Amino acid sequence: MKAALITFPGSNRERDMRMALTKASGGKPPVDVWHGDSDLPQGIDLIVLPGGFSYGDYLRCGAMAANSPIMREVKKRADNGTRVLAVCNGFQIACEAGLLPGALMTNAGLQFICKDVNLRVETTQSEFTKKYRKGQTIRVPVAHHDGNYTLDADAVKKLEDEDRIAFRYADPLGNVAAETNLNGSVANIAGIYNARKTVLGLMPHPENATDPMCGGMDGYGLFESIAESLA
Amino acid sequence: MKARVHVSLKNGVLDPQGRAIGQALHSLGFGDVGEVRQGKLIELELTGALASKSRPEIEAAVKDMAQKLLANTVIENFSVELVG
Fold first, then answer.
1. Cβ of A150 and B17 within 8 Å?
2. pTM for this structure?
3. Which residues share a beta bridge with A189?
4. CB-CB under 8 Å, A103 with B72
5. Number of domains, chain B
6. What is the CATH number of the domain that holds B39?
7. ∠ CA A21-A215-A108 to the nearest 5 degrees?
8. What is the model's pLDDT at position B69?
9. B16 vs chain A: nearest CA distance in angstroms?
């Protein structure tokens, strides 16, 4: 795996992401890329958009970053099949950039939510989640104000039919219900894939659950999966 | 020449902020307020060659700006008003 980690002004989870990626790829750190760069190194097989508050969340979360110089190259590479992992603000950026369908709106409760949540792994038919079991519940943190995933009903049905829902907010036993809906997201959706399943976007932070001494290891399966897939 | 772009959430898209504003108005005693929807007003000063173009051309250019950046058409509608 040869990953590129994009940093925008206002990114704040890039360091955590770097640790997780480095650990999963046997000590090889990702290439750091700045938002103002217009090119990515050759041979990159995974592009990572980390969490944070790029451009101060001006206009809409992710809207400015989606139009930054590097994103033109990210879109080009993604169109050519390079894998993209987009977490939290990265997910917002990916939606704004059109890499993923839908939009992320203000949480239904209007509160910033920072806590550990339970996610049900909806599919393991993906390079990002093949090390998990289907239906497995994992516990990882969220930290967001705008994670309310919004998409019209027909498009949600399409995601379901095409097995493109990656994670749903659930209870510890994996039950998905209105009470386990963290932020108002349609169909409890916490993460989704693009049509080819080469792009994964999710609001929770698996990179913050990759150390047994700090937050547990429930998020590590995602990094192990993609590292093994791209080995 | 100025352009005003009004951005609002599409019908059917839940607006939690609008709802909170409505509840606050009710608690202030303004009970006769129904649904509240919050939007944005973005004012653009138009300069250079664009400002001297015809109104339909300017309007088309501003709509292009709105579609590409100012509004997220997945969840938002917009309207363009030219002033001056």
1. no
2. 0.95
3. A168
4. yes
5. 1
6. 3.30.1280.10
7. 95
8. 96
9. 6
